[in-house]
Design goal:
four-stranded mixed β-sheet; 4 strands; flat; mainly alpha; 17 helices
Amino acid sequence: MSPPHSLAAGAEPYKDTPSPVSLDSSVFFSETTSSVSDPLDFFVVNVGGSRFVLSRELLAPHPETRLGKLARCTRGSALELCDDADPPGNEFFFDRNSQTFQYVMNFYQTGDLHVREELCEISFLQEIQYWGIDELCIAPCCRERYSRRKEQKENLDVRPRFEPEVGDEDFAGALCPALRRRLWDLLEKPESSRAARTFGCLSIAFVVVSVVNMVLISLDLGEDFVAALLFDALELACVAWFTGELALRFLCARDKCHFGRSVLNVIDLLAILPFYVTLAVEKLRGGSVVLENAGRVVQVLRLLRSLRLLKLGRHSTGLKSLGWTIAQCYEEVGLLLLFLAVGISIFAAVAFTLESDRPATTFSSVPAAWWWATTSMTTVGYGDMRPDTVAGKVLAFLCILSGILILSLPIAIVNERFSACYVALKAKEAAARRDTEEAAEGGVSVNARDARTVVVGDT
């Protein structure tokens, strides 16, 4: 069978629907459909209004694709592969993007799949999946750019599992639904009203006061009774606020189990729990040795009050983005720790071998060398341990250089994820503010989830 020739410009069946593919393309047949002797060898594909004449010979090397299956199927089963068909004219209709189909045609001609620079990667992926072409067929010249931009677009629509959707609480059928809805908006949606914004500012102020008070308590203020009394009063006021805030959230929440699994709520609980545990231990301890030992735990529990700083994550977009990034990049972080562990173990063992015979050496054991390798690979370099031999110094240089390279590997991924998370959060906040403003003006209400999707997609 001779290969098909280019379509003549005056061919009657196609003069009103010119194809976007070059007229010199070998996929076109020079004769009209009525002159085709064997309808199974040549057939017309109509993609989005653009018509193409294809041959079975062109599609034979790709039998796993949609058009490859169409070339081998019978007329009765053809409708399972296309949207519509015209059996007398041997024409098959596909309601798909005709511009993207140009690249599909190029794939059949050359065997390489290229990606348009201006095309959305997600849309392109959907198109080639429809035509049955695997994205692994993308040519090497486009593969890296396609993969990078595809990951960027996917990261814009992040939905962390640990982040509850505050607008999803449904109080229909619950006890006092109107009151619980107002309290929930006041506590969880600071953009919903002026009172909610005021409550959010007060919550931030109490966190700041609590942290400052914790710092002042650690200072040596002598026997100043007034200062001690003031610090205790501030501590009690802050704990009372945090306890009341958490209790109100718990009472308003419809799904208590989902509320308890939220990371932000766990942080709120850990921020106040040390105070009550410390208070209970101090009240109960006496002559008992067990309680006396438990009293020593009080100092450790007091350190946990620093967790109150994490409460700012409820009101800070940056801290939320950081939490999302850590949750999404746990594989990259684990890989980084693995690389560091391997490097530390190797360099520590070699350093101990090189330096252990030196008099008064600080490399007294392999665990001691682990500390040196850790500070060197992380480029901290405390200077408490250093090699004395020339070989040891060369090894230290290699250790530091390896640490820089290992630490820099996942930085680009983490930074990209953080940027995507931050953009997504800002988009959600902008959509929520827009919904609130429209509701306040009495306009048409817009679904918050749809609005977020639009904003994120435009970004």
